[in-house]
Amino acid sequence: MYRLASAFNANCNSNYASYYGQNSARNQKSLGEYCKDSTEDLIVLAFMNGFPNILLNFANACETTFPDSGLLHCPNIAKDIKFCQSKGKAVILSMGGASGAYGFSSDADGAAFADTVWDMFFKGSSSQRPFDDAVLDGIDLDIEGGSPTGYASFIKKLRSHYSKDSDKQYYIAAAPQCPFPDAYLGSTLNTAWFDMVFVQFYNNYCGLNAYPGWFNFDEWDKWAKTNSVNKDVRVFIGAPGSPSAASTGYVDGPALAKYSSLGGIMTWDVSQSRTSGLAKDIRAMLDDGGSCGNHTTTSPVPTYSSSTSDSSTDGYSTTQTSTPSASVITSTRTVTKTVTSVSTFISSHLSTTTVVSPYTSYMTVVVTYTETAPDYHKNQNRYSYKISDKIVISYQNYQNIG
Question: C or N terminus of the chain, fewer CB within 10 Å?
Fold first, then answer.
């Protein structure tokens, strides 16, 4: 699959979003550095961790302030926002976070603050704009404390500003914890229009490392189709950005394919995912298996299929489809096999060592996955296969994670 010309497309399930600004890996680069390639599609600036009395915190990315107010003034980030947008990426600002003093006392306060946000970060006018004349693409609500009051009114008023500008597409996102319904945004998610939700599937019983049957993406998919105001809302799988792990969560690609609400993957944060190499792996996986609604992302070519019974020592039972083209023969086979040691299976099929949590180390399970062979080794008369639609994400429980 080739990438669309515009990196972020809300109709796709292959979007990759990552948070930027908290330097969790202690080696955070400038925002612009992360936008020089096509890895991420959407950048979430973290955080506005104080409101309605605005307090911004972007760690080492911005430390200068307006002299008379103490409000952060970030001309370098402003320049990088424009650069990222020129590369087709969306840049939005996250309100909230794991710590901070924020919240509204009434619906009227929420609506009034929407005016302030429009004036300071979008196409309104204010004497102090933290990102100067840069115009953001949206707002993310990462509400992890306080009262639920006022957020629906905030969104309604901000969207009224959005509607007055037909030249630009704006977004509203949320980053709820995976327990459903979310403790702080549950009612708002059912009454306000959201374009996407970055569900934090970590540090909770329902996360990527959950016991079998507890990973609850299906609950969020059901919410998207039934209770969400926007029935086309996109749900992202949120995961930490580092694979150096004490436990492992893995998501089966074919299992996720049935969820029409899937929007892609979100990681916390870009300094972690770039350092660990996970960002590169996620990008490759999304490019390989993603789709964009009615958008055509691959050129149709003739195919032919044959079913075989493979009696190799690996125990494969396969259905194989080969696709010829002018320059290369590509083969895909679906494999079903019995695995007696999950850890051995994963380590033998992946290029990096993966630590598997104890409860999955020695189980007899049947796994189904798809392998693709980008090359045909003529001299050896065989294909070289790789797993193409199993997502493996390793991580540890971070403190103060976004």
Answer: N
DSSP state of 211: P
- The residues annotated as belonging to the active site are 144
Q: Among candidates 74, 1, 78, which has minimal Cα distance to 38?
A: 1
pLDDT at 375 over 70: no
Task: Tell me the sheet residues that pair with 97.
Answer: 143
pLDDT of residue 334: 46
User: Quick count: other Cβ atoms within 10 Å of Cβ 208?
Assistant: 24
Q: Name every residue whose Cβ is closer than 8 Å to that of residue 350 and which is 6 or more positions away in sequence.
A: 387, 392
Please give the full DSSP string across 68-116, using - where no structure is assigned.
TT--B--HHHHHHHHHHHHTT-EEEEEEEESSSEE--SSHHHHHHHHHH
- Residue 44 CA to residue 21 CA, distance in Å, equals 8
Tokens of 205: 């019983």
Distance from C-alpha of 117 to C-alpha of 122, rounded to nearest angstrom: 7
- The model's pLDDT over 249-306, given as tens digits with 9 standing for 90+, comes to 445 455 565 688 999 999 999 999 999 888 888 888 888 777 776 433 222 322 223 3
- For 158-187, b where at least 16 C-beta lie within 10 A, e where not — what string? beebbeeeeeeebbbbbbbbbbbebebbbe
Cβ atoms of 142 and 176 closer than 8 Å:
no
Per-residue model confidence (pLDDT) at position 253 = 52
Domain with CATH 3.20.20.80 in the chain: 15-289
* Residue among 130, 110, 106 nearest 119 (CA): 130
| Residue 240, H or E segment | strand 234-240
Architecture of domain 15-289: Alpha-Beta Barrel (3.20)
Residue with tokens 């509204």: 104
C-alpha torsion angle, residues 144, 150, 154, 160 (rounded to 10) = 150
pTM above 0.90, yes or no: no
Q: Which of 366, 140, 122, 393 is nearest to 243 (CA)?
A: 393
Which tens digit of pLDDT belongs to each residue from 161-206? 999 999 999 999 999 999 999 999 999 999 999 999 999 998 888 9
Q: pLDDT tens digit string along 58-98?
A: 999 999 999 989 999 999 999 999 999 999 999 999 999 98
